[in-house]
Each structure stands twice: as structure tokens, then as C-alpha cells.
UniProtKB/TrEMBL annotation:
<protein>
    <submittedName>
        <fullName>Uncharacterized protein</fullName>
    </submittedName>
</protein>
<feature type="region of interest" description="Disordered">
    <location>
        <begin position="198"/>
        <end position="223"/>
    </location>
</feature>
Length: 223
């Protein structure tokens, strides 16, 4: 009888553990579905210009930004330029007066969001184009974003929130409410809750895609 009880207990533990893993995986999939999947975000520099203005050589480039969706809808969609993690303001080198308006909603059936502008090469060399949107997280919202540099090779990066960011915020808020000065000074000071990370990309070779599925040649096969 004790053996049967032990077996039932083990099975119950396995079933409950499996249910927790499935629930966690569904939560991860739901979070990813509400995140950056299905977003086409491109930055192109199609035209390079060299003009002489009052005898001075001015080098500039035309830029073309494209945002299109192939999946979930996005809300509060915005595009801006930033340098060293700060959005450009009036008076900053590379600041543009006209930027795309924030879209309350962007769907895969809408026309692509585009932005064309011209910048001097010296002003654009350290600028990033940032695409941001509001994403549901738990009982509230948080901002998700991707970005590309204006300078080639335009590698894509995505903002990743730390898993402990809610705990960090709770500690900061808790410390700010303490009467002890040392607690407010140490615990309530802001800490990083996320960082930019490069999105790795790997191009498919001929024969690896349903669009081009011819047999791999000898030189394309792994050795």
C-alpha cells in the first residue's frame, strides 16, 4: 500500500510540474507574440550627395525607413532618432523638425510606415533610428523597441528588459518610502532595468528555403 501511495505521489508531482512548465511556456509564447515578432524594420541609405554650398563641400545622405507588419498589431507606434541613448531635441546635430506622427494602431493590413529624410554625414554617423511601441505586460503596459544605426551595416538591435526589472522597481519604490535617509539614498537610486542586444541574423543559402529549394551543391554542404 505504501508503494502505491508513493507512486501516486510521484505521478501527481510529475503532472503538476508538467502543467507548470506548459503554463510558463504559454506565457513566454504570448509575451513573444505581443513583442517584436513579424516586424519588418529597415533602414536604407540609397543616395549619397556631395554639394558645394558657398564654396564648402557638404556631404549628405538620403535615408529611407520602412516599417511593415507580417503578424500582430502594434499600438502607440513611434519612430525617432537618438544619440547615446537620448532622443534628439531641438538644437542637437541631426535634429529633424518633421518626424512621423505616433500611430495609435498599426496592423498588417495598413500601408507601410515610411520616413524619408536627408542628413549630413557628420551628423548621422552616430545616430540610431528607433522604432517603439506599447506592449502588454502583466496588468499594465511597457515599451518595447528595436533600433538600427544609420551607418552601415544597419544591424538590428532589440531592447531586452531584465527578468528582474519588476523586482528592481519594487525595491526602488520601497526605498523611496523609507524614513531613513541612508535607505532612500541607497535603495531608491535608479538602476538599469534593460539593455540593447543585437539580434543575430543568418541568411539562408540556396536550397534551404521554400522559395529556392534546389538541391545543395557540394560547396554549400556542411563539412
Amino acid at each position: 500500500m505504501d508503494g502505491w501511495a508513493l507512486l501516486v505521489s510521484v505521478l501527481a508531482f510529475v503532472v503538476s510540474g508538467t502543467a507548470m512548465v506548459i503554463a510558463w511556456w504559454q506565457l513566454v509564447l504570448q509575451r513573444d507574440a505581443a513583442g517584436g515578432r513579424g516586424i519588418i524594420f529597415e533602414v536604407h541609405r540609397p543616395i549619397h550627395r556631395e554639394d558645394r554650398i558657398r564654396g564648402e563641400l557638404v556631404v549628405s545622405d538620403d535615408y529611407f525607413v520602412l516599417v511593415n507588419l507580417a503578424g500582430n498589431d502594434l499600438y502607440e507606434v513611434a519612430i525617432h532618432l537618438e544619440r547615446d541613448g537620448q532622443q534628439l531635441e531641438f538644437g542637437d546635430a541631426g535634429y529633424l523638425d518633421e518626424t512621423p506622427e505616433t500611430l495609435r494602431r498599426l496592423t498588417c493590413e495598413d500601408e507601410p510606415l515610411t520616413w524619408e529624410f536627408n542628413l549630413r554625414a557628420d551628423d548621422a554617423k552616430d545616430l540610431w533610428c528607433v522604432l517603439s511601441w506599447a506592449a502588454p505586460y502583466g496588468p499594465g503596459l511597457r515599451t518595447d523597441a528595436v533600433r538600427r544605426p544609420l551607418a552601415p551595416p544597419h544591424e538590428l538591435e532589440r531592447w531586452r528588459w531584465f527578468r528582474s526589472f519588476r523586482l528592481i522597481q519594487w525595491v526602488e519604490e520601497w526605498g523611496a518610502r523609507r524614513r531613513w535617509r541612508w535607505a532612500r539614498r541607497v535603495l531608491s537610486r535608479p538602476h538599469r532595468v534593460g539593455e540593447w542586444r543585437r539580434v543575430p541574423g543568418r541568411d539562408l543559402k540556396p536550397g534551404q528555403s521554400p522559395i529556392n529549394s534546389r538541391p545543395l551543391s557540394a560547396k554549400d554542404r556542411p563539412r
